[in-house]
Design a protein that fits this description.
It is a single chain. The protein is built from six helices and five strands, in the order βααββββαααα. The protein is an alpha+beta fold and 120 residues long. The chain has a three-stranded antiparallel β-sheet. Strands 4-5 form a two-stranded antiparallel sheet.
């Protein structure tokens, strides 16, 4: 068992944002949102046939500060966006409930360290 990992099934974000809503929240064009996804600065998955982004990854009209770096580490470790969502939302009380919540707080360094360790 991984250190700090909590038992139980992975969870998903409480809320999803469709890409047009992400563009509106970030005050950028939809094409820029698509570019951010292609560049790995943001992740999107399909739910009910629509590409969506976990709402809590888009905070205060910006993407969480450490998200692009963590996504790069996860992609380098072979994770696709669907697997990255599962990893970010795997219950872990040591990371304020899960890695996604940890990214938004004082546990961001630990989240990055764990993502980096996946590549080894």
């Amino acid at each position: 068992m991984t250190v700090g990992a909590a038992a139980g099934p992975p969870t998903e974000p409480a809320a999803w944002l469709p890409l047009p809503d992400v563009a509106e929240r970030l005050d950028i064009s939809i094409s820029k949102v698509h570019q951010m996804i292609r560049d790995g600065a943001l992740l999107a998955v399909r739910r009910d046939g629509i590409r969506v982004v976990p709402e809590e990854l888009v905070a205060n009209s910006t993407v969480l500060k450490h998200l692009p770096g963590v996504l790069t580490l996860l992609h380098d470790a072979g994770y696709n966006d669907e697997e990255a969502v599962r990893w970010l939302y795997q219950p872990d009380e040591a990371l304020d409930g899960n890695a996604a919540r940890g990214l938004g707080g004082h546990r961001a360094r630990e989240v990055k360290r764990r993502a980096q360790a996946l590549g080894f």
